[in-house]
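Thread: "does anyone have the structure for this chain?"

Original post by V.I.:
We have the sequence but no experimental structure in hand. Need at least a predicted one for the grant figures.
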Amino acid sequence: MKWLKDYQDLEVSLIGDYQLTSGRTRHIQMLYEFGITSTFLPNITNPNITPNYISQSSSLSFTIPPSPKTLKGLNITFKYTITEEKHLWPIFAKITNTTKGLDLIYNPMVFGKPKFNEVAIWLSHWSMGNLLDIGDKVNVCFIVENGLEVHECGAKLVYANEDDDMENNMEWEESLLGDLSRFKLSTETYYLCRRDFFKSMEVDGPTPSWFRDSVGYKIDYTEIQGWRKTGRSQKP
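Reply from O.Q.:
Generated one for you, tokens below.
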């Protein structure tokens, strides 16, 4: 994402994990988790974030087309605004390979809070070429509670040599290309989250039924209670 240097002086308010947001500059920054690279942006126009597939709703579907190139992953974009001045709850991104029966549900530790009625963009790169084959049917979905309005979501296929600066020398503790067993549920679902979301909901958040209805009934919700930054808690 070298092109982002052109926008490095723009400011975005980040909320979420206090340890990550406290004392941080408001200038555009990168978040690295699970082999996923994220950044939050103002509503800029740039060909580097122009998607191959686009929807004016919170979800879209497409089929991986034939190509002589090696598929490295997906760039996902999500445009949204704040419509209510209230406590905001995290955004979830869900990528489903329906052909393989695989779900990836990701909740970033921080996310961008735009000014009231201003559009923000969540741009993320998922290094998951190893999980996608030609002909696979893919669904991308963003899950938000009331108070956030969806304007657009998009997906772009990233092939070898097209966005090599996405690859970096960081050694991921957990990665889409490596071992995510601590974040795997009993189904073929990977819950890429570093907070006990249900514990938060007991205080003043959305109801568990909202999350269940949005994410789907495949999940045994007792599995993600007591969730930690390192995934499921170890049983004695």
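V.I.: this helps a lot. Residues 167-173, 200-204 have pLDDT under 50 and may be disordered.
O.Q.: and Helices lie at 18-21, 197-201, 208-215.
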